[in-house]
Design goal:
- The chain has a 5-stranded antiparallel beta sheet with strand order 3-2-1-4-5.
- By secondary structure, the protein is of the alpha+beta class.
- The protein is elongated, with a radius of gyration of 15 Å.
- The chain has 1 helix and 5 strands; from the N terminus they run E-E-E-E-E-H.
Amino acid sequence: MRYTIDRFENGKAVLLEKGNEFNEKLIPIERMPSHAKEGDLVEPADLGHGKDYQVLEQETAERRKQAKEKLEKLKKKNKKK
């Protein structure tokens, strides 16, 4: 199962289930990689050093790229009006 990091609050990462964003999961921040940030895609993993989730770097980068392209397209569309 994959999740998006929605935010960090009160020492916890708030994860939203991919495909069912109404399903929130609260995970102690210590169980997340130190480089994890809001918007990253993560999945459970047995990393063997107390971190139970891993960031899906390639998928996160692709998602960020797609979001940026959509935003640019919307900006161009609004300029034409």
